[in-house]
Each structure stands twice: as C-alpha cells, then as structure tokens.
Design a protein that fits this description.
Elements: H1 23-45, E1 58-61, E2 66-73, E3 79-84, E4 87-92, E5 96-98, E6 143-144, E7 150-151
Antiparallel strand pairs: 1-2, 1-5, 2-3, 3-4, 6-7
Length: 159
C-alpha cells in the first residue's frame, strides 16, 4: 500500500522518508488494465458496435414506440437526430431499430424480368391420419386422458 508499518524495531532514517510513486507509470498501468478488462467483458458478453444509420432511413424508436426517419447523425458518438410524430428527437443508436424495407423482395403482382411467370402448384393433400383405438371418442361415461388412460374416480367420492 506504500505505507510503512509502525513498529518499535529501529529503522534507518532513509526508510522513514516518504516516496511517492511515479504517476506516469501508474497511469499507464491503470489504462492498460482498463483496456484489458473492457476487452474481456466485450468478448464474454458478445458486445459489438451497431451498424451506422443513413439519413433518410426509416427506424423504430423503441422508447417512444413509434416510427421515425433519421435526419442526420448528431455530433455526439452513436447519436442521431430522428423525425417522429412528436417532432425531432435525439436518440442513441441503441434505441433505433432499422425497419425492414421491401428491397430485394419480389411482389407476386409484378412480372419477373425474363418473361416467365412463376409456376403455381396446388398443395398436396395431407395423408390420412390413422387413429389408434385408445384415441377414439368413447360414448360411455368413462373419461379418457389425452394419452389414452382411463380416468377412474375414487370410490370415496361416490355418495
């Protein structure tokens, strides 16, 4: 801890003079330790940077639960200015979820490039399901469980 323990044992006068640590070396060690701790934490918890958003992109604002449009990136890290129904908002990237666009999805109404219409086939009928005797519906007073076991009520319940 840097402090000499008090004792009745005689000591040299040079050991009684306080010696301060080199703060540059101490700061370098602390920064290295913090960086190593951050790297281990990020690896263990799967932390990663989110993809940056493009101005004009539609996003879902999670805390307001509304849809908005990104206007521009803010000068603070990972923050964006978003236009929503309430007005303009500044939100962190963590609170903005990009909405799915229909780019790359072919509509069924549009003809394909190449002229051939998509082939449509009727779905095949499902094969008939064979029922086991234990699953049949019984018309008697007996009650059956889903697995086919007969439920017998205890005699003490009969009055």
């Amino acid at each position: 801890m840097g402090r000499r323990l008090r004792t009745t044992v005689p000591a040299l006068p040079t050991l009684l003079d306080p010696v301060l640590p080199d703060y540059n070396v101490l700061e370098a060690k602390e920064n290295e330790k913090r960086a190593n701790d951050a790297e281990i934490y990020n690896k263990r918890h799967g932390a990663r940077n989110l993809e940056p958003l493009v101005p004009g992109e539609d996003v879902w604002i999670t805390d307001a639960r509304v849809q908005g449009t990104v206007l521009t990136a803010h000068n603070t890290p990972r923050s964006y200015i978003v236009q929503g129904p309430q007005g303009t908002l500044r939100r962190n990237r963590h609170h903005l979820v990009p909405l799915q666009t229909n780019s790359g999805v072919i509509d069924a109404d549009e003809p394909r490039v190449g002229g051939n219409p998509p082939e449509t086939t009727a779905p095949e009928p499902a094969p008939p399901v064979a029922t086991s005797p234990s699953r049949e519906v019984h018309t008697t007073e007996t009650v059956w469980t889903r697995c086919g076991r007969e439920v017998r009520k205890p005699q003490r319940l009969d009055w």
